[in-house]
Amino acid sequence: MFNGTRLRMTVLLLATASILTVGGRADWTVAQAAQEYVLVGAGDIADCNTDGDEQTAALLDKIPGTVFTAGDNAYPDGRQKDFAECYQPTWGRHKSRTRPSLGNHDHHDKGAAGYFAYFGKAAGNKKRGYYSFRLGAWHIVVLNSNCSKVGGCQPGSTQEKWLRAELRRNPAPCTLAVWHHPRYSSGYHGNYQPVQGLWQALWDAGADVVLTGHDHDYERFAPMDAAGQHDPTRGLRQFVVGTGGTRRRAFRPVPAENSEVRNSDTWGVLKLTLRDRDYDWQFLPVAGQTFTDSGSSACH
User: Fold this and answer.
1) What are the backbone dihedrals phi and psi of residue 283, each rounded to the nearest 5 degrees, phi first?
2) Do residues 139 and 132 lie in contact, with contact meaning Cβ atoms separated by under 8 Å?
3) Which runs of consecutive H residues, i.e. helices, occur in the chain?
4) Distance of CA 58 to the CA centre of its chain
5) In whole angstroms, what is the distance from residue 117 CA to residue 119 CA?
6) CB atoms inside a 10 Å sphere around CB 200
7) Most buried residue among 79, 114, 156, 252 by CB atoms closer than 10 A?
């Protein structure tokens, strides 16, 4: 007969267990939920001439997790004054949990001095502007698509060789990259060929997701191979999320190949829920807007 202590322990175990039938016999096994991590953010963010960054920062206020930026953090020139007056009052509330990346406007200030002064160690080595970190089972690489400022992005460049070595040293079930200039885009700037070497290295390693900004819109692409062809088996899925708060721009008349979803009139952030072998995405619009986009995918 159970005493009171053993009875309480039995009830607790039954409440947290699930039934597994093996060979016609029911066994009790403790259920373990998959751990989830949130990565949320956008690019093209803080502009004192709009209130878009105030609205997107209000979204971040309600979303826990790690914040990413996809470049062009503070307009117009990424100077310390721009960060202090435009970025700090809005997205600056989340600075302690932010993993930033460099945009071309951040480089208007020589050596991206304002960017590195503001973000400090979180921005990585000042001479490189690229780094990596782990988020659960995910390997996140933050790259510098301002290729001319960092010795190039082509095969054999310092950054491309670093990326390949980093991917070899840190094998992970799921890999995600963040940079500013999209390899493919239907937006104002269009495709950005100089990052092809980085795209190739990621595809060779079986990476899963690329997050970018630069074009002031939202666009989701189908998974693509190293040559930009549809590859549902092991292709890279790219998102353009230039919706952080600066002025928005219309798309080109003809969409880029493999473009699946496009919107150019909504500020918002992209929320990724990362698990050990898969992920969900959800575009969250600012208050008063209705456009959204969501889905799920397995890692390679």
Assistant:
1) -85, 125
2) yes
3) 4-15, 52-60, 80-82, 113-119, 158-169, 196-204
4) 18
5) 6
6) 19
7) 114
Can you give 52-70 as a three-state secondary structure string? HHHHHHHHHCCCCCEEEEC
Tokens encoding 32: 């373990």
> To the nearest whole percent, how much of the chain has pLDDT over 90?
88
Lookup: tokens for 129: 């502007």
Decide yes or no: CATH 3.20.20.370 for domain 35-298: no
The size of the chain, in residues, is 300
Give the count of beta carbons closer than 10 Å to the beta carbon of residue 100. Answer: 29
Which 3 state secondary structure label does DSSP give 42?
strand
CB distance 20 to 26 below 8 Å = yes
Using one digit for the tens of pLDDT, what is the confidence trace for 213-236?
999 999 999 999 999 999 999 999
Q: What is the pTM of this model?
A: 0.89
236's tokens: 């890279």
- The letter for the amino acid at 243 is T
Q: What residues does each domain of the chain span?
A: 1-32, 35-298
Cα distances from 34 to residues 30, 241, 294, in angstroms, run 13, 27, 20
DSSP state of 83: I
Cβ burial, residue 187 (10 Å; 0-12/13-18/19+)? buried
Q: What is the largest distance, in Å, between two alpha-carbon atoms of the chain?
A: 78
Q: Which amino acid is at 263?
A: N
8 Å CB contact between 42 and 57: no
